[in-house]
User: What shape does this take?
Amino acid sequence: MMPSSIFGFPMKRQRNVLIGDISKFLILAVIFLCSIRILAAAMVPFTDTTEARYAEIARKMVETQDWITPYFDYGIPFWGKPPLHTWMAAIGFKIWGTSELAGRIFFASVSLFLILILFDFVRKEVNRHIALWTIFILCSSGLFFGSIAFVSTDIPLTFGCVMIMLAFWRYHECTAPNYRAILGFAFGLTIGFLAKGPIVILIVGVAVLAWTSFIGRWSVLFNTNWIIGICLFLIMSLPWFVIAELRTPGFAYYFFVEEHFYRFLISGWEGDRYGNGHAFHKGKIWLDWGIAFAPWSILLIGGYIYRVIQKEVCRPTAWLRSKTPSLESYLLCWIISPLIIFTMSANILTAYVLPAIPATAILTALVVRDLGLSKYIQLTGIQIVTIFYCLMIAVLLLNTDNRLLKSERATAEWVYGNFDDVDITYLGKRSFSLEFYSAGQVERIDHIQDVEMLLENDQQDALVLLQSDLSLLSDEYQERFYAPYMTNRRAILIEKWEQ
Assistant: This one.
């Protein structure tokens, strides 16, 4: 008697999967993953460098009441990114106070909305079961799970890309003008542009041009109705850029030229006003995609290899040569677009692949369907992945002293919890998390010799430095401070004070 399956792969004629119970597990798993991620957003501190930097810029926006110009530091405008992510965090701080959840709540909301519209799209294009698999894979992919409630530009950018790509697909399916798709295109382009600038146009432009050229449907792309969407986009997004240039001259050149050309074309670019360039080997973005989509990148690549071996597809590019519009070919163009764009870039971060992750999740869900994995294998996989993220969040939440995280929340809490009138000064590289948790009331020194100024300022000071730098303090200086209190990687020295 022939076996019904081999290592969980059913024989070709027996690919009947009971999806009822699996769908219930997928729904519960998605709800659970989103819940623990939002719980972590409420409890895990802002960490250096990226999230704490953007949170501190948002806190300064609320403090200064300047809702046009984000500030990198007091008096120094932040030209590196448009203000959408700053507005999202700042509005949360304005309404609910400067807490972690307040700063992250709108990023979590955008993530959840993205999940819902992706589910609705796949449900209508394929079926409900594949839609559930899609959002489970999306929520449990490493980069997206971490980004669900993370203060940065990447989630709003990805949301904008998703809106545009889904709108274009919807439009190509209709024989009559689809003005809902045009409106979705305009809003998506506005959100993406105000999140990260022209890169949204490049990402969706490369994907749409590649797909359109392969299927030969140029009439969809060069349709005059898109002009309506472009005009709406300009009306919604252009005013801020004009006002920003008028208020802080020089912004336009730095943002559009230096941030969008020099940053990506010059390895180790040193013109970044707000940090350092990230010098990596060109082509690293493809490896980043595999890491960002883990653990599902292994299944996606392995699944396609399996399909090729089984001769279910002759070649991976078979859909691209077909004149019949294919969802899989559209997704493939969507996925490789940011990877191709950043292949020749030396200044990259793993987060740059996030706009490709939603399409990758859909494609992986289709692979799960085509592999016909047994019910047992599917349920086991769902449980393993969910338990893994549960354990990871548990470790973070039980890490009460923040030793696993690069954050100075514990430092600020200890100083202000034990002393009423102490000025904090820290030695070394700028810490945005310490600035945030001290409400900007900290000073920074670059050299250990500058400690002498603290001892002569007629004010009790708290000196914060790396524990490894304690040995740099001379005995004379150490005698002027109480014994250091150790927290995280830092040592806190309180100046001996007699009023």
Summary: DSSP finds 21 helices and nine strands in the chain. Confidence is low (pLDDT under 50) at residues 1-17, 319-324.
